[in-house]
């Protein structure tokens, strides 16, 4: 029956098991109220850590020849559609390359743009044999450009000590390779400072 000693003992024992962090005085205080809220202590499940998939090392990429262009693919005509795509990309990036556009704004955008597919010419160089090389950029690395010429020759041109020019819709931009030694992914986040004179 309600109010009996057995019932009180059962309730006290039940509350101690249900609320192990409470002291006896706190439990007695809770009993004076009509409503009792039982606490539930659940064990937090540890989430298994996801392992990030490991990519190839630089040595493995070289062994697999992932970045090498096969000799039968080294043809200027194959990459002309890539150049057309690049021109459309630059027009979209620069909002149409209008004649009244400010050159320094266009230059800033071109410096951060992806150059794969651009036609560039080496205009100045400390090594005379590089001057005049013109072609489509197939690959850009931190220190070199890989360029395919109209003669279907793949040229590896260092950025250091070379000045490159690229032309699109009548707008000519010059790239000082010595200040351009960055990977394409890093260049998009870099802030380039305008300089009055730049050495090769």
Automatic annotation (TrEMBL):
Keywords: Nucleus, Phosphoprotein, tRNA processing. It comes from the Eukaryota. InterPro entries: RNase_P/MRP_Rpp29-subunit, RNase_P/MRP_Rpp29_sf, Rof/RNase_P-like, Rpp29/RNP1. The keyword Nucleus applies. The keyword Metal-binding does not apply. It is found in: Nucleus, Nucleolus. GO terms for cellular component: nucleolus; ribonuclease MRP complex; ribonuclease P complex. Belongs to the eukaryotic/archaeal RNase P protein component 1 family. PANTHER family: RIBONUCLEASE P PROTEIN SUBUNIT P29, RIBONUCLEASE P SUBUNIT P29. Component of ribonuclease P, a ribonucleoprotein complex that generates mature tRNA molecules by cleaving their 5'-ends. This is Ribonuclease P protein subunit p29.
